């Protein structure tokens, strides 16, 4: 029985894989370049509890136009997509009752699954390629599924080979027509958002970018988003670094296709956000206060790179609480540059309290993250020219 089942599954997946290399359709929201999808052995074996669901699924290649991918990724020669940035997501529509993804991971990453706009559960990608059930037992009909990488690049790189469903995939979900790029640190990654106490140590299981301020803001505006974020990073120096200026901060990291790899560099022509929102600084102050000259040099480099790649889009720098010096630096820098599309807003202390607003590792939980989002939403609305729906919750 075991050998017969594996033979049938191999035949099924080979049929789907034969159409790899289809033309992608990202509608300006995300894309992939290069040839770096991972090098994971594809065992084509499901976990025991996945066998029944996988047996009758039809697989569609990751690059098919029916699958809408948002974020930075690289495409391998066989059409698979590889990515590691927090918050990368893909969505699809199908008619049926169950669906799955075929994926591999260099370490272990956790994914949020949303069905028809509602949270449905969490799945894990780990090790060699396997079929990972996303949802099953759904009412028969048309369903929209969104799968979001909730953990950051340090937890590993995922390679997505295909999406499976027990019914036909339909046209991809429509793009919302808005896109925000967030550049940040652990607050943007959602580090510890699901922790129950600030004294609770960090665990990847409690990291959830969907509960962080960037995703909350994107939800409020019904916008696509990319999170170019990595815990512990600064703009001048990183957490605990004894050097006055760190060798690699978000200045360099934001140029990459993969968070954790220096190459390949990202092709910025693949998408153009409507606004770039930067929130860096907490880690810069972990070993003292950077000087105005150090900040000007580091921020000037980041600013010039963004202008060169994205043109004249609005840039909003959100200065974290307890980093007041950066707000003073920025105001002077903005006056010097004379750029009407460069702005700064401070998160003045105490925007978060130190009890109910904190999750694991003394990082904001959902309550604290909502406060941070609420303080920024009006500025984004003004700079991007988007209305603020009064009946839409911030969550």
Can you tell me about this structure?
The chain is an alpha/beta fold. It contains 8 helices and 15 strands. The strands form 2 sheets. Strands 1, 2, 3, 4, 5, 6, 7, 8, 9 and 10 form a 10-stranded mixed β-sheet that branches. Strand 4 and strand 5 form a beta hairpin. Helix 4 (213-221) crosses helix 8 (366-384). It is globular and about 60 Å long. The N and C termini lie far apart (48 Å). The model is unreliable at 1-49 (pLDDT under 50).
List the helices and strands and how they pair.
Elements: H1 2-17, E1 31-33, H2 51-55, E2 58-61, E3 68-70, E4 72-75, E5 81-83, E6 89-96, E7 99-115, E8 118-135, E9 141-149, E10 158-165, E11 179-184, H3 186-189, H4 213-221, E12 224-229, H5 250-253, E13 275-279, H6 292-310, E14 315-319, H7 324-337, E15 342-346, H8 366-384
Parallel strand pairs: 1-4, 11-12, 11-13, 13-14, 14-15
Antiparallel strand pairs: 2-10, 3-6, 4-5, 5-10, 6-9, 7-8, 7-9, 7-10
